């Protein structure tokens, strides 16, 4: 693989003479005003164009502009024809295509596959402004319009579909989106390193098909090139007792001869398929018969040869037909996700291989600072005039201080996209951005809505040993317990909070990202700073479940850790003389969850006075470990075999409705369903009119008939949904019943 190069060390492209654009152009008129006759790169996105570093297309566009390239934006084009895609003309280098900040299917459909009426990334919150599977549709239109212009797909939608993946919306395994989109190259993970290298090399005249040595990319090729050693994924983690597949390249002449001589086929080491896998790999050889080629797959490869070895995953056809092999493939992909030791992966799709290079090297602090200090205007493009974009309204006063997450929650795709190694900004860079917001962003009232990222409190946390970190294959640094090699010192984050809240003109610094409370309890000083200065009455945390069954499949800590954090939260709130509350989030219908687990959670919620206002069931997002559980019924956190642990999967609309109803036990529309379930489960003792009962015997007039306990339509417009990082499975406990507190948010 090509070694990582410092992101801003490249010689700028000649077009840097045009300077910095106030906004990246969306029309020909804007291009002409900038003096451009053409764009070097055009980014097509499913989101409205907001020039803010919380929007992926803005970051990529500004990073490429800083390299000297002329970058245009086509935002939310009409995909019914090619007209919108031709708006800026033909790019000199390539089209970059992304579905946007959210996967288009998650954006468009609820966890029960109902169409959403809104889209937070569209002006006015209007739904339906992007197609399903946007990356594929946009790529097809670009091909129709411009033929052989190189297409590079990226963003979270492409990243999480880089190999054969289970698609919840069609209930089947789909091919890599690279092939369905007919793209030339797929960029996965944070894409700055890859996209900058691609742009500079294409500008130098290299062909897109020759860019096969970039980390964090996937591409198609016909066969494994000479000099590479293939490793069968089954030798890394054998997926159970399967019949050996027929190998069309295997020389079976010795086996047939042995059989004719009275020896069972395969009983001789010299003729068995496993004997063809040598521990010290010789070069591929051919048999004496010129008509037969023997390809050898090896069990072990010397460390010195790892850079030229590739792991052969089960093919698309194999994982499509066998859920056990799908779970095995998922396990292998997650084992090979550490940039320090990951090997290339290859998966056959028909007569084409999809080749995945190892993940990109994480960005250094200097690079992160430079990215976030680019000249963003921090507002939507003037094209949208006064129309409000809900996602922007929510994040316009928030600041990203880090990327990545080492939590490894199986239902979340952040780790698969951004990686386990935390990428941090410097304190000075963050303070500089706060001051910029204070001084230049319209409507700022003195309140920063968030200093965070995928999590609120992983800033500057990392493995104590770079050597151990580069060799580690653990999916989580905090499950089943916090790794002893993990530095959990929150001092840098505490200092950042303290410095930020004392800046002139700053009234309040709120923390809107989710707090990882199992880490927070390791630093009571952090909890004190958080609770006494950065909570606006309510703090959201995510236990997700309380039963060991679902928690073990989520890789989340037990409820005991929640109680420890709650104790510290209440202690420091009392010391500050503040009445503040924790708002726990939960997931309904997650793999590993039984009806009894949800009943236990409902009783716990009632005992603790929580009433969930909005509930969402688990959504099997592409490539997540929990999705592999959902599809296979097996646990890929351990070795997967046909006889390995079976995972309870709450599939089907009826059981999903029931699990959601348990979380909304207080909704009278759910009471008939819950009474029926409680009697079936032998828990009729929870039906009654006392405080100790979960649901009453009586039924209010006019209730109990609405599907899924759905209430009547609201009389006012619904509040905008919070922008999501592909983590839409949470249950928001917005309505909280507390002594002395009014019902509602």
Automatic annotation (TrEMBL):
<dbReference type="Pfam" id="PF11842">
    <property type="entry name" value="DUF3362"/>
</dbReference>
<keyword id="KW-0949">S-adenosyl-L-methionine</keyword>
<feature type="binding site">
    <location>
        <position position="409"/>
    </location>
    <ligand>
        <name>[4Fe-4S] cluster</name>
    </ligand>
</feature>
<feature type="region of interest" description="Disordered">
    <location>
        <begin position="230"/>
        <end position="289"/>
    </location>
</feature>
<protein>
    <submittedName>
        <fullName>Putative radical SAM protein YgiQ</fullName>
    </submittedName>
</protein>
<dbReference type="InterPro" id="IPR024560">
    <property type="entry name" value="UPF0313_C"/>
</dbReference>
<keyword id="KW-0004">4Fe-4S</keyword>
<dbReference type="InterPro" id="IPR058240">
    <property type="entry name" value="rSAM_sf"/>
</dbReference>
<feature type="compositionally biased region" description="Low complexity">
    <location>
        <begin position="267"/>
        <end position="289"/>
    </location>
</feature>
<dbReference type="Pfam" id="PF08497">
    <property type="entry name" value="Radical_SAM_N"/>
</dbReference>
<feature type="region of interest" description="Disordered">
    <location>
        <begin position="700"/>
        <end position="745"/>
    </location>
</feature>
<feature type="domain" description="Radical SAM core">
    <location>
        <begin position="391"/>
        <end position="656"/>
    </location>
</feature>
<feature type="binding site">
    <location>
        <position position="405"/>
    </location>
    <ligand>
        <name>[4Fe-4S] cluster</name>
    </ligand>
</feature>
<dbReference type="InterPro" id="IPR006638">
    <property type="entry name" value="Elp3/MiaA/NifB-like_rSAM"/>
</dbReference>
<dbReference type="GO" id="GO:0051539">
    <property type="term" value="F:4 iron, 4 sulfur cluster binding"/>
</dbReference>
<keyword id="KW-0479">Metal-binding</keyword>
<dbReference type="GO" id="GO:0005506">
    <property type="term" value="F:iron ion binding"/>
</dbReference>
<feature type="binding site">
    <location>
        <position position="412"/>
    </location>
    <ligand>
        <name>[4Fe-4S] cluster</name>
    </ligand>
</feature>
<dbReference type="InterPro" id="IPR007197">
    <property type="entry name" value="rSAM"/>
</dbReference>
<dbReference type="InterPro" id="IPR013704">
    <property type="entry name" value="UPF0313_N"/>
</dbReference>
<dbReference type="Pfam" id="PF04055">
    <property type="entry name" value="Radical_SAM"/>
</dbReference>
<keyword id="KW-0411">Iron-sulfur</keyword>
<dbReference type="InterPro" id="IPR022946">
    <property type="entry name" value="UPF0313"/>
</dbReference>
<dbReference type="GO" id="GO:0003824">
    <property type="term" value="F:catalytic activity"/>
</dbReference>
<dbReference type="InterPro" id="IPR020612">
    <property type="entry name" value="Methylthiotransferase_CS"/>
</dbReference>
<comment type="similarity">
    <text>Belongs to the UPF0313 family.</text>
</comment>
<feature type="compositionally biased region" description="Polar residues">
    <location>
        <begin position="255"/>
        <end position="266"/>
    </location>
</feature>
<keyword id="KW-0408">Iron</keyword>
<dbReference type="InterPro" id="IPR023404">
    <property type="entry name" value="rSAM_horseshoe"/>
</dbReference>
